[in-house]
């Protein structure tokens, strides 16, 4: 059944708190109730996320190590340590699982770093592996360290910038390399890659953006046709006013 739209002002602090307590992760909260989630962000009620477990994202990883008492170890990096831990023991081809089945020794999991950028994580993983080698540990890794797991992770800032430089318009960038475009929007790099041609702050005006939005049938066309106006409208949460029948989550956000 389609959920009914809540009236303006419905998502008070207490209602957002009640909703937030249903979720273990911020991404889960955003997926299941984007309206309440956006209200928390807009009002900076960030303490409502305090009970949620922190995980990485498409551009952040942490380093972890499984240590066995027989001096074997496995070094890895992941954006979600809980999911990765489950994967290791569900996957019969996992080096960790294989050694556990072979020896019956239950490994201890150690988290070596906080969530850091992909580039830093790759270096730290190699450094951690070398430290274990120097201390005479037997390395179980079958694949060379430095892999980052997901194809999406390739869109680091430098990789996105390299692609963006091939295009003179945001719309071309968006159409040709959607993965890089989505990463650039999500992490706030787009303005750096495509400096606004209009006077800085020109579109930071709701009425101007509203008039511009009238030229387009939907958000997607608005984004293609007038990036600067769309960007300010999206940032200031005006899109729901301009396109009131559009109930899905923000485009690409």
Features:
253 residues, alpha+beta, GIY-YIG endonuclease, five-stranded mixed beta sheet, 14 helices, 5 strands, 9% strand, globular, disordered C terminus
Describe the structure.
This protein is of the alpha+beta class. It has 3 domains: 13-49, no CATH class; 60-152, GIY-YIG endonuclease, CATH 3.40.1440.10; 157-242, no CATH class. The chain contains 14 helices and 5 strands. The protein has helices at residues 13-20, 26-32, 34-42, 81-90, 95-103, 118-134, 157-164, 170-176, 178-186, 190-193, 206-213, 219-225, 227-235, 239-242, and strands at 60-67, 72-78, 108-111, 116-117, 138-139. Strands 1, 2, 3, 4 and 5 form a 5-stranded mixed sheet that branches. A hairpin with a 4-residue loop joins strand 1 and strand 2. Helix 1 (13-20) packs across helix 3 (34-42) and helix 8 packs across helix 9 (178-186). The chain is globular and about 70 Å long. It starts with 12 loop residues before the first helix and ends in an 11-residue tail after the last helix. 26% of the residues are buried.
Number of helices: 14
Distance between the termini: 24 Å
Sketch the topology as an H/E string, one letter per element: HHHEEHHEEHEHHHHHHHH
Number of β-strand runs: 5
Can you name the CATH architecture of the largest domain? 3-Layer(aba) Sandwich
Structural class: alpha+beta
Give the total of domains: 3
- What does the overall shape look like? globular
Please state the average pLDDT score. Answer: 79
CATH top-level class of the largest domain: Alpha Beta
Main beta sheet: 5 strands, mixed
CATH homology group of the largest domain: GIY-YIG endonuclease
Helix content: 40-55%
| Radius of gyration of CA atoms, rounded to a whole number | 23 Å
- Beta percentage is 5-15%
Unreliably modeled segments: 146-152, 246-253
Assembly level: single chain
What is the CATH fold-level name of the largest domain? GIY-YIG endonuclease
């Amino acid at each position: 059944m389609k959920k009914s739209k809540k009236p303006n002002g419905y998502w008070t602090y207490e209602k957002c708190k009640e909703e937030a307590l249903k979720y273990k992760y911020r991404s889960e909260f955003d997926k299941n109730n984007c309206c309440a989630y956006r209200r928390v962000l807009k009002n900076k009620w960030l303490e409502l996320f305090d009970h949620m477990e922190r995980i990485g994202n498409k551009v952040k990883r942490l380093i972890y190590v499984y240590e066995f008492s027989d001096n074997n170890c496995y070094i890895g990096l992941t954006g979600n340590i809980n999911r990765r831990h489950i994967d290791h023991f569900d996957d019969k081809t996992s080096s960790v699982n294989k050694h556990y089945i072979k020896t019956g020794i239950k490994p201890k999991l150690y988290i070596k770093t906080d969530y850091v950028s992909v580039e830093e994580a790759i270096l730290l993983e190699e450094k951690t592996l070398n430290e274990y080698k120097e201390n005479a540990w037997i390395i179980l890794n079958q694949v060379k360290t430095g892999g980052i797991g997901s194809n999406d992770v390739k869109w680091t800032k430098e990789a996105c910038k390299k692609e963006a430089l091939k295009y003179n318009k945001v719309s071309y960038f968006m159409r040709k390399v959607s993965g890089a475009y989505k990463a650039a929007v999500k992490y706030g790099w787009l303005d750096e890659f495509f400096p606004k041609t209009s006077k800085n702050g020109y579109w930071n005006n709701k009425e101007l953006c509203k008039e511009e939005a009238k030229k387009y049938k939907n958000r997607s066309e608005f984004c293609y046709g007038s990036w600067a106006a769309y960007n300010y409208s999206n940032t200031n949460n005006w899109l729901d006013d301009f396109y009131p029948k559009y109930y899905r989550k923000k485009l690409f956000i």
